[in-house]
Amino acid sequence: MASLLKPLITLADGDPLSPKQPKNLPGNIGTSTDNLIGWSLTGALIACLLGFIFGCALIGVGHNTERPDMAARGKRSVLWSLVAAAGVGTVFGLVKAFYNIGQG
């Protein structure tokens, strides 16, 4: 069993649970870029959350008032909010991957 875990530990680059210091861009560019990316990701996730909440409300109102078109719009809103949140979640990994490719 231990021989099966050795390649996984090698791929994980050490202990995955130990906190690591993030690498920033040098100088003032690093702090302002980190702030810009952090605020934009936070804003996008808040927008996804609001779209999900309003979509659920549309589903409830549409079903209770017997308006299937409103319920269908709510279902589409919930679905696209989840897809957008997943996309926002993958952005950080993509940015880090391309940054590492540029460094090597």
List the helices and strands and how they pair.
Elements: H1 2-12, H2 27-64, H3 68-103
Number of distinct beta strands = 0
First CA to last CA: what distance?
Answer: 34 Å
Mean of pLDDT: 80
Q: Give the fraction of residues assigned to helices.
A: over 70%
Radius of gyration: 21 Å
Short structural summary:
This is Integral membrane protein. The protein has helices at residues 2-12, 27-64, 68-103. It has 104 residues and is mainly alpha-helical.
Written description of the protein model:
This is Integral membrane protein. The chain crosses the membrane at residues 36-59, 79-99. Keywords: Membrane, Transmembrane, Transmembrane helix. With 104 residues, the protein is mainly α. It has a domain at 41-104. Helix content is 82%, strand content 0%. The chain starts with a helix and ends with a helix. The model has no long low-confidence stretch (mean pLDDT 80).
